[in-house]
Amino acid sequence: MQPAVGCVRVLVEDQTFTAEKRMLIGASEYFRGLFESGMRECSQEEIQLLQLPARGFAVMMRVLRGEQPILNSGEISDAIECAAFLQVRALTEHLIHIITSHNCSLMLETASVYGVFDLIHASALFMRDMYFKVREDLNFLPDHLLDYIESLSPSTFVAVATHSPSDQYLDDHSRTICYLDEAENIWRTLTSLPKQASTSLAGIAVMDNNLYIVGGVDGLSKRVVKLNFCYNTERNSWSEFPSLQHLRHSLTLTGQDGCLFAMGGMCKNSVLSTVEKYQVASNTWSFAACLPRPGEGIACARAMGRIFVCLWLPMDTTDIYEYKTHRDEWLLVTTLRRQQSYGHCMVAHTDNLYVIRNGPADDFLRCFIDCFNLTTQEWMSLSSYYVNSKGALFTATIRCDNVFTVNRSLTLVYNIEKDRWKPAKEGAGFPRSGSMHTFLLRLPSRGLAARYQN
């Protein structure tokens, strides 16, 4: 049967919405069944949805048109009801992207009422990461939801230092990935790196709770490492996956929707603009749209389910681009002009991008933070500066409302407030020298001590 075409008026409560049938069919299992059923609704120019909230339907329409609205409590509840009844995957994904410490319990409870499992799971994971702070305030939740939260593994702060491949005949016991045992305030060994793996100038990313290492160099000669490695957290095992088509080091690696993106980097003293995409399901690399300009060690962050990069033009210009994964194109989002001495990093929290940079000239040990809000499209400079030697902000990793930073001396955790990052607590320093990569992994709780502690 040919799908319905044209527009349709949808009556919800006392409001009328006009939408393209093709858009509704593509986004909603309910509308696909309605308009392709062969029943009279296929040819009607107006239909009525009973017992659905107009406010939730309005949110759905905004999302389907490409917006990413930040919602209040009432809008969240109504949107979840529409996502469940109309079976709109894009709306569910948007709700997952806007989970915060302020709305996670509402998301969990409402999603449970309407049976939106993906949102239940994402909300429970978020709450598990802050459970020790909020457990006493969650007595209103049913026991089965509390049990579900407690059954999940929390995110753990993990770090790996810079290592070249090891001599096959010599074990290097320092070539380990470690996690911070926050209860005991000690770094413990998670796993040893494969002997042929390099974390020196490599691309490192976590996707679906698996750790990926791509590229990097071997020793001072900067010979590019061909082998790529994946660490499966659940199985506590390493595997190899195919090499890049264009070998490189100093690349940036990020992952989304089952795909890794290796961006920029260097090859034979040339800075690259090429981007390669690895599809985990097919175990293949392919080229994607090139960066707007060449870059190495590019700052990258994911926010609201979107990928953003900083392309820096020394000494004062930072362009932030978004990579539109479905359209395979780059879009300039905003430009920041601040003086600085060398590179920077970027992290994301809710709909905010935080660009962390060192100061110019004599201020090079100070880290300054500028915040760009994706919803308002406005910049704000955080009120405080941060001494880089105190907490190595260029390794910042965010969990819920906390920023983890680390160097050899200490792990410093900040709490994100509106106009500043407030130091919250200190922990043990990472017992390795040199620069490092940091990230979050959910370590299996069953048998954790036996499997991971050295």
**How is the biggest beta sheet arranged?**
5 strands, antiparallel
Quote the distance from N terminus to C terminus. Answer: 63 Å
Low-confidence stretches: 446-454
Categorize the overall geometry: globular
Radius of gyration: 24 Å
Structural class: alpha+beta
Helix content: 10-25%
How would you describe this structure to a colleague?
The chain is an alpha+beta fold. It folds into three domains: 98 residues, 2-Layer Sandwich (Potassium Channel Kv1.1, Chain A); 50 residues, no CATH class; 298 residues, Neuraminidase, CATH 2.120.10.80. The chain is built from ten helices and 32 strands. A hairpin with a 3-residue loop joins strand 29 and strand 30. The termini are far apart. The C terminus is likely disordered.
